[in-house]
Write a structure and sequence with these properties.
alpha/beta; Rossmann fold; 7-stranded parallel sheet; 7 strands
């Protein structure tokens, strides 16, 4: 393996990593040598995925620790358990997110909006801050936010979610400048339409999947490995000079132009689920 992408001896946390994009990232980081903490709300799921990863890698490459992004004590405990188990921390991929509030701004209650902000922005920030002193102990580190193309432009039918994802870009900018002198790199990966559990209602329906796919210049939905490859790069020596950046991985979807009518994701999800 090229040393550019060698993560041997590195310790990584990937939140929301028992399925979809997060699981893909955890698997590929471990494949490239990292010791990975698999995390989600279910301890049983964490243990099962960690065991699979270790079996695939032929070593004790992963362990599991349940955590809840909505609970600050749980967020901080995740970092503490990881450092205690592996002896340090080098990489954190902030993939877990609250995604269940869909709809236009007029459909979103203040309570729902606040819940989205608390989980996705406030608590992810606290996770980054909890990791910071451990990065310093290692002489640097890599912090990677999993954002979304919904934060790159108008995404009115996912109003609260897109606001949260746009805010992540500002966190990347702020942390990259503040922590750059400490050799801590901070970046974001912004997935486009990706095959995952969260998007199952869309891609499982052939008509909906095809309709969305037709808008993607590359002609297909993204896979978790497309995001994982970017995270391996950003976490590895190959990404040593990259910070403060957002890597958009959408097959060219965001080149469609602002004049295209916005999709109503809430209505589409309901229609797909009803079939």
């Amino acid at each position: 393996m090229s040393s550019l992408f060698d993560l041997t001896g590195k310790v990584a946390i990937v939140t929301g990593s028992t399925k979809g994009i997060g699981q893909g990232i955890a698997r590929r980081l471990a494949e490239h040598g990292a010791n990975v903490m698999v995390s989600s709300r279910s301890q049983a799921d964490c243990d099962a995925v960690a065991a699979d990863i270790s079996r695939e890698c032929g070593r004790d490459a992963a362990v599991g620790q349940a955590f809840d992004l909505h609970d600050l004590d749980s967020v901080k405990r995740l970092v503490e358990v990881t450092v205690r188990r592996f002896g340090g921390l080098d990489v954190v991929v902030l993939n877990a997110a609250k995604t269940d509030i869909l709809g236009f701004a007029n459909d979103t209650t203040p309570a729902d909006f606040q819940a989205m902000l608390n989980a996705n922005i406030v608590n992810n920030t606290e996770l980054a801050l909890a990791a910071h002193p451990h990065f310093l102990d290692r002489g640097g580190g890599a912090l990677i936010f999993i954002a979304s193309i919904s934060g790159t432009g108008s995404s009115v039918s996912t109003s609260a979610y897109s606001v949260c994802k746009r805010a992540l870009f500002q966190l990347v900018d702020n942390f990259a400048v503040e922590w750059g002198p400490q050799k801590i790199r901070v970046n974001a990966v912004a997935p486009g339409l990706t095959i995952s559990e969260d998007t199952r209602a869309f891609w499982q329906n052939p008509d909906t999947k095809a309709a969305f796919g037709a808008a993607i210049p590359m002609g297909r939905w993204a896979e978790p490995d497309d995001m994982a490859a970017a995270c391996v790069w950003l976490a590895s020596p190959g990404g040593a000079m990259v910070t403060g950046q957002t890597v958009v991985i959408d097959g060219g979807l965001t080149m469609r132009g602002a004049n295209q009518q916005a999709a109503d994701f809430k209505a589409l999800k309901a229609a797909a689920a009803a079939k």
